[in-house]
Design brief:
Layout: E1 8-10, H1 12-25, H2 30-45, H3 56-64, E2 75-80, E3 83-87, H4 93-111, E4 113-121, H5 128-132, E5 139-145, E6 167-171, E7 179-183, H6 190-199, E8 208-210, E9 215-216, E10 225-227, H7 233-246, E11 271-279, H8 286-301, H9 317-329, E12 331-333, H10 335-348
Parallel strand pairs: 3-4
Antiparallel strand pairs: 1-12, 2-3, 4-11, 5-6, 5-11, 6-7, 8-9, 8-10
Helix pairs in contact: 1-2, 2-4
Length: about 350
């Protein structure tokens, strides 16, 4: 990316404002457009390039095709003191999941722990964005989701019945960066495959195989194969459990019910997500817990290293560093994305990306 002279550095505020303009031009209410634009630009800021502005054109295509509700009525369809199920009414996932996290945080204040799931939601970007939200309230966030297209067969099978089904966890620290794990249950998230295709790059061996079991390296041929699960059969099992928790439990799509939103822009996806929030106050002094997290992080980071290893990284540290660098220097956008956004601005009649 850095070697292409047409790669463009864009400030996060400018990117956020452009996404906001585009979504409002498509008919999304200002409040919802603001939430979505903020989270999409934050995805790019932290280096989750497969889930940021690269998704804007597909989102708009779904909106124009009638596959997404711009005026959803978000409502709890099941509720107890420590749980809830939020029906997203086919609204954009960023708005639906943000609302679910807010509800879970408030319930966790009262109950110590709270689970809020979603159904009738849509793609919501990187899982870590939502696992991080409770951290600001001295809480732990655990996030689960069903992916928006199936790219994984059962272990030993050929029919793709599972998605990348991500898991994320955000744990606050005192002086160290928070520990934030964000992982697909496949070796690579499909968003990374899409980003590789946009960049004209090949995939590393081990991301995908074809239907004969041979390595698949060309991301533009991704439909000819499928993603590999992490840890072999264990990753398949983990993807299944996450899907049952985030999808089936909430009455959301799972297995053959999952709609491939990369191909079908009309059918409702009925995407399911879930957030589990734990209030540190239920376990004692939050500051004392966070200080202990600092100790564990420093012990791990300062452990003896293997030859050739410059640094031991904690989950979330590299994203934390990318946020710092990109906030100062700008977010790098590939030439294909720059051209796509320029064409979109002309099509919508909005101010181009500043």
């Amino acid at each position: 990316m850095a070697t292409d002279p047409r790669t463009r550095l864009v400030q996060v505020d400018a990117l956020q404002a452009f996404i906001d303009r585009a979504l409002q031009a498509a008919g999304m209410p200002a409040a919802d457009a603001g939430i979505t634009a903020t989270l999409m630009s934050q995805a790019d800021l932290q280096g989750s390039d497969g889930h940021g502005v690269i998704r804007l054109v597909p989102y708009l295509k779904r909106i124009r095709s009638g596959g997404m509700n711009l005026h959803p009525n978000l409502r709890l369809v099941h509720e107890r003191p420590g749980m809830g199920v939020l029906d997203g009414d086919n609204g954009i996932g960023h708005v639906v999941v943000s609302k679910a996290v807010d509800i879970a945080i408030e319930k966790a204040r009262a109950c110590g722990v709270a689970w809020v799931g979603t159904r009738a939601s849509n793609h919501a970007g990187p899982a870590s964005l939502y696992a991080r939200m409770p951290i600001e309230h001295d809480m732990i966030g655990l996030y689960f989701a069903v992916g928006n297209a199936n790219h994984l067969p059962p272990w030993g099978g050929l029919e793709m019945l599972l998605s990348t089904n991500p898991i994320a966890c955000g744990i606050p620290a005192l002086h160290e960066p928070p520990v934030v794990l964000d992982m697909a249950t496949t070796v690579a998230a499909y968003g990374k495959v899409k980003a590789k295709a946009k960049a004209g790059e090949t995939m590393p061996e081990g991301w995908m195989i074809d239907r004969e079991g041979r390595p698949l390296l060309d991301p533009k041929r991704a439909e000819e194969g499928f993603l590999l699960p992490i840890g072999g059969y264990k990753g398949f099992g983990l993807a299944l459990i996450v899907g049952l928790l985030a999808g089936t439990l909430q009455g959301a799509a799972m297995g053959r019910e999952v709609i491939d939103f990369n191909r079908d822009y009309v059918t409702k996806t009925n995407t399911g997500q879930a957030i589990l929030v734990i209030d540190l106050r239920a376990f004692g002094d939050p500051a004392a817990f966070k200080a202990r997290v600092d100790t564990v992080v420093r012990d791990l980071r300062n452990a003896p290293r293997m030859p050739g290893v410059e640094r031991i990284w904690m989950p979330g540290e590299q994203s934390f560093e990318r946020r710092r660098v990109r906030a100062a220097e700008g977010i790098p956008l590939l030439p294909a994305i720059v051209d796509e956004l320029a064409a979109l601005a002309g099509e919508l009649g909005i101010a181009p990306l500043a």
